[in-house]
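Record type: monomer structure entry
Structure origin: computed from sequence
Chain ID: A
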Amino acid sequence: MSVPIKSEMYSRLMEHLRKAQEDAAMLAHLNNAEGDGPGRVLAKGWLNVSEGLKHMQWAVTRLAKRSIQ
């Protein structure tokens, strides 16, 4: 087992966040495609989750930049 390094952990974390954000966006799309009221409400919720994950990616990138400098 190799010793983990910062850049490797950052890359892994960003990949998981990116995939989660894409999945949340897809869930928003699929719920919205149902065309009914509850589907639209759920779609907005998943879209909020997607946007929150984008913000988390931005925050993680800022932290990673600070630790690299």
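Annotation 1: The CA atoms of residues 15 and 57 lie 9 Å apart.
Annotation 2: Residues 7-68 form one domain.
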